[in-house]
From TrEMBL:
EC top class, as a word: hydrolase
Domain Peptidase S8/S53: residue ranges: 4-234
Family under the similarity heading: Belongs to the peptidase S8 family.
Protein name as annotated: subtilisin
Keyword Protease belongs to the record: yes
Molecular function as annotated in GO: serine-type endopeptidase activity
Catalytic activity: Hydrolysis of proteins with broad specificity for peptide bonds, and a preference for a large uncharged residue in P1. Hydrolyzes peptide amides
Family matches, as InterPro entries: Peptidase_S8/S53_dom, Peptidase_S8/S53_dom_sf, Peptidase_S8_subtilisin-like, Peptidase_S8_subtilisin-rel
SUPFAM superfamilies: Subtilisin-like (SSF52743)
PROSITE patterns: SUBTILASE
Amino acid sequence: MKMVLDSGINWTDPDFAPLKGRVKKTSGGYLEGGWNFNTESSNLTTESSHGTHVCKVLAAKGNNSYGLVGIAPNVTLVPLQVVKIVKGKDTVPLVNFVAALNMAIDIKADIISMSVGFYPHQMTPSTLYLMWRALRSAQLAGILLVSSAGNKGVRALNKYPCWFGGPLGMCVANLLSNQTHNVLNPNSNWGERVDVAAYGTKIVVDGGKETLTITSGSSVAAPFATGISAILLSMGVKPGKVKPFIRMHTDPIYHPPNAGQPHTIRGGALNALKTAKFAINWLDSKPRELRSNDYLELEG
């Protein structure tokens, strides 16, 4: 199952309705659809469209003559509403963020897409520790954490969860979408803990009332990488190999000569086709494991 830590979505939307699931919790009981950490209920709200945009890119259902088609439209989608509107702005209380990570562990999520950001100067040492511990616990539980790099055009130093890194953490920058070469959007954050870049400029998303609009930012670049990661997991690739597979098969990023100092990242531009082809060949080369319904006939 794929979790999105963001604002809420509308389950009556035809692009989302088929993705709603009933998920068993390790602690007991079930999670119906998603969870709103502002109201401590399963009633999601859509005062902010941010979560809708992210979820549409990630998983909007296809072949329904409606809206969009996401990167991985055959998943169980679990939106965790952590965004809270304060004075007309989207904010994410850290307590919501930590609680959402703990819930992801509780329901044994596969991937979490997190287009959010925190900085240490916004936190006390104790809250910083709680965030670190929650991110570490999620990775120790085998959950892939995909995050956005941010949109200030600076080195993503100490922007969490991007800067946390880790073997199961993947931070995604924003590529321009209308260039001959792969070029980072000048507004995208960059740096040595930004793993890959994906298209995040002028991306078509839901505009409300059955309309479409465009948006830009690393927030909509991250779900491209989340979707490809989900596809790799569905093929049988282990969580610890997803980021290496993706980074090994990126395309070079071009730095225009008149753009000043190059903004560099660890990897390159996401190439879904190259990554998937490699994964298929890699899986085919592995010895076939016996399944529970495989039997051998005894002679004599």
